[in-house]
Specification:
single chain; about 220 residues; alpha+beta; about 40% helix
């Protein structure tokens, strides 16, 4: 990304697809934005066999202030900032994780190699999944999920779901289908065993209709 082929300049950057791997890598305007630059890096890293994931740096208000990447090297998730073509290292050249960069001294050492690197891009608050786009302030899902299962956003690789909208729709549709099917079974059990009310048993009616259709009627 630092010294690759010449990048094109789009007359209308807003018309570019920020999710298209080819576009994010080959247009200067997209590589100058942290989100799309990180997308380009993730695509390159994954195609090279590296295990990577996106990391969102959050401000005090919970909004995203910068986007970087984490790369799994020697069982450590080290930080790469694709927008500044920077691999975070300390003064001794040791690769740094997000926990390391919470140390102000190490953070200062890491960004000192890039002139005018914004010091507010610090690592006090971060996330892997952005829930702020959900209406009503994300329905406070992050607080609820953190209380139920701390570290849930690191449990799986969310990149494929977040970057491939069609796959996300497929997964959500499948999950909803399973949920409503189980909910129907629960309601049927409650109606049969608790309320004691007759139900319309669809499969029984289908079986009876099939028997009537394919069996030879008895003539008396």
């Amino acid at each position: 990304m630092r010294g690759g082929a010449p990048r094109s300049v789009a007359a209308d950057p807003s018309a570019l697809s920020t999710r298209n791997p080819e576009s994010t890598l080959n247009y200067q305007q997209l590589l100058s934005v942290c989100g799309t630059a990180t997308n380009a890096f993730l695509n390159l890293a994954e195609s090279s066999g590296l295990k990577v994931r996106r990391l969102l740096l959050l401000g005090p208000d919970g909004r995203t202030k910068h986007v970087v990447a984490e790369v799994l090297l020697d069982q450590r998730w080290v930080i790469v900032d694709p927008a500044y073509r920077l691999i975070m290292r300390d003064a001794q050249g040791r690769l740094l994780t997000r926990k390391d960069l919470q140390d102000p001294l190490k953070f200062k050492q890491a960004i000192s190699v890039v002139p005018n690197y914004p010091s507010e891009y610090s690592y006090e608050k971060f996330a892997h999944v952005r829930l702020a786009r959900i209406p009503l302030q994300g329905l406070r899902l992050r607080r609820v999920l953190n209380s139920i299962y701390p570290g849930w956003d690191e449990l799986v690789d969310w990149g494929l779901l977040l970057e491939r909208e069609s796959f996300l729709v497929l997964v959500v549709s499948g999950a909803m289908t399973v949920f409503f099917f189980l909910w129907r079974i629960l309601l049927a059990w409650y109606a049969d065993h608790r309320l004691r009310i007759p139900r319309f048993h669809f499969l029984e009616h289908v079986a009876r209709a099939g028997a009537a259709l394919f069996s030879t009627p008895e003539i008396k």
